[in-house]
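Archive maintenance. Older records in this collection stored only the sequence; we are now back-filling the structure field for every entry so that each record is complete. The fields below show one back-filled record exactly as it appears after the update. Entries are processed alphabetically, and OmpA-like domain-containing protein is next in the queue.

ARCHIVE ENTRY
Title: OmpA-like domain-containing protein
Organism field: Candidatus Phycosocius spiralis
Length field: 255
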Amino acid sequence: MSLAIASGVLASILVLGLSLEHTINATGQSALIAKQAPKNVDWVAFAHDVLTKENKNFILVAFRSGVLTLRGDVQEIGERARAMSLVKQAIMKEETHVGQVLAFDNQITLAGKRLDDAPDAASTLGSQPTSLACQTAYDTLLDGRVIQFGSGSAVLSEESKPLLNALADVAKRCKTYLVELGGHTDARGDATANQALSERRAQSVADYLVTKSVPASLLEVTGYGETRPKDTRDNAKAQAKNRRIEFKIKHEVKP
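Back-filled structure field:
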């Protein structure tokens, strides 16, 4: 074999080797990326399959904005709790639920009667949630829901207790973060009085959370009065939106 031919063969082998190495590396990298990337799970179908296996396919499943909701009607309260427990446990075993399923909402009626349950946003957080996960949990619970008070007072409405309990569960999971409870009012009446009312209402929420074993040291109470409206229109719907308590993560609490 001539030197020129040998050199050509060697060059071809080197090129082939580089090509194979590149292909293997690319394949390995793609496999790693695929392993790390979350699966695009159809959570409605997933939950429905779980319920069908337990002969509960009459329960309807919905999934919107990270909240998985069960609807239907049962005759026994235990059956209602069992349906949600089955779905929750199955989803929690799936690592890919993190960041996708943010809360569980049990809207199954009991003999046609609706129960005042609030969504469970604490179970999805795990034992060491990030500040972003905690903020998302608070936002999920307060999306379309408002803590109610007596008219012109800081007395908590009984119908808001389930929501407050759900918020307390999140606060206890998020025990390494200071959270601001910001009170807001609508613009009706005197601005000074509204400022004071917003502070009293935020404090009422903090006091209730403490009764549910949330450390007071994790809660910062602030009143904003009428200065930060969510809706600037002058109608009853806008005013209802503006009367609210917001939960905002401030910073991590050092032990």
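Update note: The mean pLDDT is 86. The first helix runs from residue 3 to 36.
Entry marked complete.
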